[in-house]
Automatic annotation (TrEMBL):
Taxonomic lineage of the native organism: Bacteria, Pseudomonadati, Pseudomonadota, Alphaproteobacteria, Rhodobacterales
Biological source species: Maritimibacter fusiformis
Enzyme Commission number: 2.6.1.42
The keyword Transferase is annotated on this UniProt entry: yes
GO cellular component: cytosol
UniProt name for this protein: Probable branched-chain-amino-acid aminotransferase
Keywords, in A-Z order: Amino-acid biosynthesis, Aminotransferase, Branched-chain amino acid biosynthesis, Pyridoxal phosphate, Transferase
SUPFAM superfamilies (UniProt xref): D-aminoacid aminotransferase-like PLP-dependent enzymes
Length: 285
């Protein structure tokens, strides 16, 4: 695999980052994951816009403009012959050397920029989307700025491990009795054909797929309510699903051991997945 590090394309075994990098020492960095279908980027501009916002929230200087970012994404797709898969992008605050709690001067310390591809043939035909996934609920013990897409993914990783240990696919985080989101996705329920998902705030990541799906739902005259919901409500819902750049729209068929609806992927989730894939492929660049 050919990866990108700070302006250079090179084989992954030759790619290196300083041991003093604040991404490594302090999880001081942000990331994005953009899907590739048929060799084209899905929702690129949404991811680029969120990246700009994440950097601004952390007082980091964007290392490159949108067009250059797009060019690197495309170059990686071409060099690695990616048809279906993902582009991972990470920007950390770098470090001139030695460990310190204070940020280095951005004028003299450039960010570290790393990008690489993950090939996933048949990404849009994941069997999980046909069967639906099962989730458990766990307490949300992440920090309070979940709207910034930082590389601090230890707690979400622990959540995913807890889910696998419980024999299911993923975990939904719960805070003050309400679902915030999944370990790496936004969470939804459907009741009487109304789509319900938590409103945007610093409690959740502002999913790029979420924004697109809610727009398509509105265009298809589906009813949407942005509010938080409980696990009991999810258990009594007609359907549930998640969204993310790599899972698109994936039905959830079980929550904490209880079947959601008839325990099969629901009509609304299935339809939204079709619309999302169709429209995003059309708009892909
Ligand atoms: N919430 C969290 C916590 C996530 O990690 C992700 C995926 N990165 C999402 C939601 C979904 O965001 P997106 O649709 O932009 O992939």
């Amino acid at each position: 695999r050919i990866v990108y590090v700070n302006g250079t394309y090179l084989p992954e075994a030759e790619a290196t980052v300083s041991v003093f990098d604040r991404g490594f020492l302090m999880a001081d960095g942000v990331y994005e994951v953009t899907s590739v279908l048929d060799g084209k980027l899905i929702d690129f501009d949404g991811h680029a816009a969120r990246l700009t916002r994440s950097l601004a929230e952390l007082d980091m200087t964007p290392p490159m403009a949108r067009d250059e970012l797009l060019a690197v994404h495309r170059e990686l797709v071409a060099r690695n012959a990616i048809t279906d898969g993902m582009i991972y992008l990470q920007i950390t605050r770098g470090n001139p050397g030695d460990r310190s709690f204070t940020f280095p001067d951005p004028e003299t310390t450039p960010c570290t920029v790393v990008m690489f591809t993950q090939s996933k043939p048949g990404l849009a035909d994941d069997p999980a989307a046909k069967a639906g996934i099962r989730v458990i609920s766990i307490p949300d013990q992440r920090w309070g700025r979940r709207d910034i897409k930082t590389v601090q993914l230890l707690y979400p990783s622990m959540g995913k491990m807890a889910a696998l240990a419980a024999g299911v696919d993923d975990a939904w985080f719960v805070e003050d009795g309400k679902v915030t989101e999944g370990t790496s996705n936004n969470a939804y329920i459907v009741k009487n054909r109304k789509i319900i998902t938590r409103e945007l705030s610093s409690d959740i990541l502002h999913g790029i797929t979420r924004a697109a799906v809610l727009r398509f739902a509105a265009e298809a005259q589906m009813e949407v309510e942005e509010r938080s919901f409980t696990i009991d409500e999810a258990k009594g819902a007609d359907e549930a699903f998640i969204t993310s750049a790599s899972a698109f729209v994936t039905p959830v068929v079980e929550v904490d051991g209880a079947a959601v609806g008839d325990g099969k992927p629901g009509q609304v989730a299935t339809r939204l997945r079709e619309i999302y894939l169709e429209e995003s492929r059309k708009a892909a660049i």
